[in-house]
Design goal:
This protein is of the alpha+beta class. It is built from 9 helices and 4 strands; from the N terminus they run H-H-H-H-H-E-E-H-H-E-E-H-H. Helix 2 crosses helix 3, helix 2 packs across helix 4 and helix 3 packs antiparallel against helix 4.
């Protein structure tokens, strides 16, 4: 067996174990650094890209044997595959592996707790709103830092841009057929529901005009 592989099988197992240990360690570090650190990646997408790049580099330059590098690549790929399935089944593992969305603006006001979690000051938040074309923070119902570090904006209904169904009768009819006459969307279709954000979401009641 050792002659065929050119290496002791025990060493190959140790290579896989080291790859797994480094994977877990780096995942913890990346999660601790916050969602904005990973840019447009999820935490373990960035981790897999970094680790695979390093292993491939060492194989190409001959720093490790090909079979040893192959074992490391397979181990990293298997861990990433397992991570993605754990997140897919969503039994609380997604928030551990990738984190959960963080609210940084709520009802037109800074959410200090969320800002502390993401280590964002007021200028950071205002800059993110500006990128989304927001001139006045009071227009914002929720601003949320997503898993990949991007910031999504949900405006108050009164601040939304008028849509075709607001003025065209045919589009009003098409909209009513689509939503079944229910103006308030069901929780499973709302992007700002407690389910979607993995946390309770409270709002001030809308005052009648």
């Amino acid at each position: 067996m050792q002659a065929r592989l050119g290496m002791d099988p025990t060493e190959l197992l140790l290579t896989a174990a080291r790859a797994a240990a480094v994977y877990i360690l780096m995942l913890v570090v990346i999660r601790a650094l916050g969602k904005r650190t990973v840019g447009n990646f999820s935490a373990f997408d960035l981790l897999v890209a970094l680790m695979l790049g390093e292993v491939v580099d060492e194989i190409i330059y001959g720093d490790v044997r090909f079979i040893q590098g192959t074992v490391a690549i397979v181990a990293i790929g298997a861990l990433a595959y397992a991570d993605s399935w754990l997140a897919y089944f969503d039994h609380g593992m997604e928030s551990i592996l990738e984190g959960k969305p963080t609210i940084i603006v709520r009802n037109g006001e800074f959410d200090r707790k969320g800002m502390r979690e993401e280590r964002m000051n007021q200028k950071d938040v205002l800059g993110q709103l500006r990128k989304q074309g927001i001139h006045d923070m009071r227009e914002v119902d929720l601003a949320i830092v997503e898993h990949d570090g991007s910031v999504s904006i949900l405006k108050h209904a009164w601040a939304d841009t008028a849509q075709k169904f607001d003025v065209l009768k045919d589009d009003i009819k098409a909209r009513d057929e689509m939503i079944g006459g229910a103006e308030t969307p069901p929780p499973h279709t709302r992007t700002d529901s407690s389910y979607a954000l993995d946390q309770p979401v409270s709002r001030k009641p809308t005052q009648a005009a």
